[in-house]
Design goal:
Largest sheet: 12 strands, mixed
Oligomer: single chain
Structural class: alpha/beta
Radius of gyration: 24 Å
Helix content: 25-40%
Number of strands: 21
Low-confidence stretches: none
Number of helices: 20
Distance between the termini: 71 Å
Strand content: 15-25%
Length: 511
Amino acid sequence: MSLTRIASKIFLPRQKDLDRHNYEAELLQHKVLMRLVKKAADTEYGRSHDFANIHCYEDFVARVPPNSYEELKGFIDRMRRGEKNVLWPGRTHWYAKSSGTTNDKSKFIPVTRDGLHDTHYAGPFDTVAFYLKNNPQSKLFDGRALILGGSHAPNYNLPGSLVGDLSAILIENMNPLANLMRVPRKQTALLADFEVKRDQIAREAMGRNVTNLSGVPSWMLSVLNRVLELTGKEHLNEVWPNLEAFFHGGVAFTPYREQYERIITNPRMHYMETYNASEGFFGMQNDPADKAMLLMLDYGVFYEFQEMDNPTLQGPAPIVPLWGVEPGKNYAMLISNSCGLWRYTIGDTVRFTQKNPYKFVISGRTKSFINAFGEELIVDNAEQGLAYACHETGAQVSEYTAAPVFMDGNAKCRHQWLIEFAQTPGDVQQFARLLDERLQQLNSDYEAKRYKSITLQPLEIIVAYPGLFNDWLKQNGKLGGQHKIPRLSNERHVIEELIVLNREHPAERTE
């Protein structure tokens, strides 16, 4: 008998329980909120915000303010130094390192033991539950899962306390039995040098019966291309004939789909999106015919939402619980969770496509950004990087925009900057190098993707003619008022139009 058929029985009770998302959303979320505040009532944060007297959502709102990372950073820093019962009961040993804020190169998100089990591991379990329900003929467990992970390092040299990528934390704490069903070996998965790791993963995996993949599309594509190089094959189904699924998340899959379909020609291949962040596992694509994801409501996460695009409101939009959202609107997402984050703005925006069940798509970020490859570059990084390059070269920047150039067949990619200079640097390549180096100093995720130029190549600068940005705004009827060209964009529509206009300018044609 197929091992998958046996394992599928484990998921049957949960598959039935998940139906509650269709008609008990408010009840599920209320139970989560009460469980969270009750558990944390005797922590420092719980006592100072009177968690003991919170009995409903309205009580919670009246006592707890919305928080950014800056508001919680002091508490988290103390937790990282070994203090216990600060934001969550006990001492927290794990911290997921992600890209920084305006004030810091990196953020350190607490990952408690409760958060690991009621959220971060609950999500992958439910992902498989939905997949098996949708694909009853699956042989997922009859082979190995190729799962990519990051690395971790000591935290303040406290015994047993570590910081690193969330994926590394999950692999480090994974049930030993689960490790029997995956490749590469744990030691390989946690290597810090991705150039070495990529080659070793490919060598360990290419001789196995891999049936499914899990990871960020950009990093996974790099590994898969290495497998093809080593085996001399053109398509992955020649290496792994039973490959049937890719569970992906972290960055948008659209730019990569064509490349995956080029190297995986098996018509039975399935792609399933998940929404797994350092702060928690929030959703998954439960219906292969629907690109929207189901919001997971019974984990250790309570959700709130703030409307982002209502120009009629004076001041910040009100924050509402899940049952207060309306489909079609963009909302910034706030979470309270079993890792000690309280009414925390995670920086993502979502748009609901329906209610009961609550399904959504990720619509962007609360700030202009580039996150095509997991680099999470924000405008503040860009502004500081440009200021540094200008200072060093005597240049002056009047306008700019930047966007990703997505991976080619060799898994190469870069950022492309279109810059209108008020004072052009004597050496544009030197300016580009200084900007690139400064961005790596400011943003640890960008630094990681630029490491040895394995995934992210050096950035490219295109010099704009004077007045290009105003010409584009005028051409699109947006000159003046509040209309602006995005400083950073995760897609190429705007920059492509600007590049065409720049190329067609008479000064450009005569040079």
